[in-house]
Design brief:
The complex is a heterodimer of chains A (217) and B (217).
Chain A: H1 5-29, H2 41-48, H3 53-56, E1 65-70, E2 77-83, E3 86-92, E4 98-106, E5 109-114, E6 119-125, E7 128-135, E8 138-147, E9 152-160, E10 163-171, E11 177-183, E12 186-189, E13 199-202, E14 205-208, E15 210-211
Antiparallel strand pairs in A: 1-2, 1-8, 2-3, 3-4, 4-5, 5-6, 6-7, 7-8, 9-10, 9-15, 10-11, 11-12, 13-14
Chain B: H1 47-66, H2 82-107, H3 120-146, H4 153-176, H5 185-212
Helix pairs in contact in B: 1-4, 2-3, 2-5, 4-5
Classes of the chains: A alpha+beta (217), B mainly alpha (217).
């Protein structure tokens, strides 16, 4: 005797999976991206793109410049603060993954490294930073523009209730904040950063954040 | 098809497999025929379900490897973040899988002194359906937001088990829906499904609860 129950169970699973995938694709499509979201093909495109800019590039020097935006494909946001040949980058998803990187910005080239094998290589010129960042176990390519204060990269570090708390925020041009908080070994969403006060409340304690200019964390 | 007739009505709580014998004490009679391959029942019939199951496992693995994890997916209401939601949903699925295991043992008469009541089959089928349907959103999130990962042994095992689990489950459902399957097929694939889910839970939820030291939702 053929029974339909098991096949219906499989079918229910497939339908559920399909519905969730559609929701997922919609959810990630609505995250604003700086470039067309294709998966592996874009890496080749972005590494080819910076070639023409090295000759007549306007390389920013002197005042700090912050590049910020979402990575290609969505899912994470990156900010790179550059000043006087030094750079600091922060990649985070606003929920549970983040990476801090430090390094150099010279002659239009970005080279940064961070903990756990994180690394960023790229170029910056004419108000746009392009490149690839490897962090939290995968590669992201990015092509992001500059942002003006009060948008930028912020960091707060404090000891709250006997725990080391480090918060990072990327404030985008439209005021959107993406930030994560590391307390001990746990990473969660960061609390809201109050601007222009540059404060945040962690476990009832108000802590101060500074805007990073690229020279020191 | 020649078959030793059933004794006077015994509760039909078992899956409709003609080779299965009720556990209730029976009047002495000739032992049931050994479940060897006969023209109507043979291991050859497993080939199609096994191939289909293999294709399911393979497809999941290929998708996981080709798709670049987005780090975000649609949120599940009621949980503080996606990882907590998954850890708990997977735990509930595992609890239902334990119900599966115990009810299966009861139906096959392997629990000494325990006589499976007539609703055991229904309990087994429904606990299985719930476990499977709980596992689907977890797997979708894993695949969509993270993809197939090679970064550590735990993650490699989890990625492989995830593919195998859904493959084995597909085979088990197909075996149930057809006639003439060898009698060992169901216990073997049921066991593989359970082992797969147990391994998945150990390499994800247990690891996560252990390392974050928190069981909160």
């Amino acid at each position: 005797m053929k029974r339909k129950g098991p096949i219906l169970t499989l079918a229910a699973g497939v339908v559920l999976a399909a519905v969730l995938m559609v929701l997922n694709i919609n959810a990630t499509r609505s995250t604003p991206t700086a470039a067309a979201p294709t998966d592996k093909a874009t890496t080749a495109a972005t590494t080819a793109a910076p070639a023409p800019t090295t000759a007549a590039a306007v390389v920013p020097a002197g005042p700090p410049v912050t590049y910020a935006g979402n990575v290609v494909g969505g899912g994470a946001t990156i900010a790179i603060a550059v000043k006087d040949s030094k750079a600091i980058a922060y990649l985070c998803d606003g929920r549970s993954a983040e990476a801090w990187l430090q390094g150099t910005a010279q002659n239009g080239a970005l080279n940064l490294t961070g903990a756990d094998g994180a690394g960023l290589t790229g170029t910056y010129a004419n108000g746009v930073a392009n490149g690839v960042v490897t962090a939290v176990g995968r590669d992201f390519s990015f092509s992001v523009g500059t942002v003006e204060p009060p948008s930028g990269l912020y960091r707060a570090s404090a000891n709250v209730a006997n725990a080391e708390v480090v918060d990072g925020w990327i404030v985008l041009a439209d005021g959107t904040q993406v930030g994560t908080q590391r307390k001990g070994a746990t990473i969660t969403s960061a609390p809201r950063l109050n601007l222009p006060a540059k404060t945040a409340v962690v476990d009832g304690v108000t802590i101060n954040a500074t805007m990073l200019d690229g020279t020191r964390l | 098809m020649a078959m030793i007739p059933d004794p006077a009505p015994a509760p039909r709580y078992a899956p409709d497999d003609p080779t299965y014998r009720p556990v209730a004490p029976q009047p002495p009679q000739a032992p049931p025929p050994p479940a060897k391959a006969s023209p109507n029942r043979s291991a050859m019939k497993l080939i199609v379900p096994a191939v289909i199951g293999g294709l399911v496992a393979l497809s999941l693995g290929v998708y996981g490897n080709l798709h670049e994890g987005t780090l975000v997916a649609v949120n599940i209401a009621g949980f503080s973040n996606a990882i907590r939601a998954k850890a708990w949903l997977a735990t509930f699925a595992f609890v239902f899988a334990l119900v599966q295991l115990v009810s299966a043992l009861a139906m096959y008469g392997k629990l000494p002194g325990i006589h499976a009541p007539s609703w055991t089959g229904t309990l087994h089928r429904w606990s299985g359906r719930i476990a499977f349907l709980l596992a689907v959103p977890v797997a979708i999130h894993c695949l969509y937001a993270l993809g197939f990962e090679w970064s550590s042994p735990r993650v490699i095992i989890h990625s492989l088990l995830g593919c195998f689990f859904f493959g084995f489950f597909t085979v088990k459902m197909l075996v149930l829906s057809r006639r003439g399957m060898p009698s060992w097929a169901l216990p073997v694939f049921g066991g593989l499904v359970f082992t797969g889910l147990a391994g998945l839970w150990l390499t994800s939820s247990l690891y996560f609860f252990w390392h974050t030291g928190s069981l909160k939702f």
